[in-house]
Amino acid sequence: MKFFVSSFNVTRFLSLLIVTCGIAFNTTAQAGYCKPQKLKSGCSPFAADYFVANPQTQQFQPMQVWYTDQGTFYKKANGELTSWHPKGKKLKFNRWITDSKLVIEYEASDLASLGQNVSWEQVRGLLASKKLDTLHQAETMQWNRHNARRLTNNDHSYQVELIDQYQIPARVIQNGQPTMVLARLYQTEEVVGWLAQLSTFDRMDYADLGDSESDPRVAKLIHQGFVPGHASHSHGH
């Protein structure tokens, strides 16, 4: 599903989206939810549905985020599924190849070699903590019965409406135009079902892909340029 919206009606479109979808927000906090900034074993997973805009093309696409006790999962409109998982003080990244039932696992050393320097706060809250640190509070507000704060920079060219309970953005505005909007925040059995399916996937280390070309699934990925430079990569264990 794609939305092409001219700069003239971006705000109107997102306002309508919030009105039609916002009723699905949970209106009361549940103690058993997986808090975005804190993982607790056995907590109930919940999902956040976003629409994210490309400021250059004014194209909006849906993105679903799952908050679970295993990590944070991102599911894009094209079906691409990725996830981030805390491992001590570092992060691990997984790319799920759903049609092949295969998951490629990236250790912290892999991410470092690929120039991926991402914090857990950014993964869980969708925004870089360094970016948020440059903002100051403009006002408190309500977002579909959730307490929220509007944060802004000095010239108001960048604003974030942050839901206090979950510390995730309800809306991001750049140069007067919304670029990210939260449509729904909810608990869903879909996440539980997906996690059960993902637990059956074959797991493969990113660093070992070059030695696994005999696997047709891996050969296909390499042929598609899925992991450039994989053959010369190593963990350095």
Automatic annotation (TrEMBL):
Keyword hit for Signal: yes
Alphabetized UniProt keyword annotations: Signal
Segment forming the signal sequence: 1-31
Protein name as it appears in the record: Uncharacterized protein
Organism of provenance: Litoribacillus peritrichatus
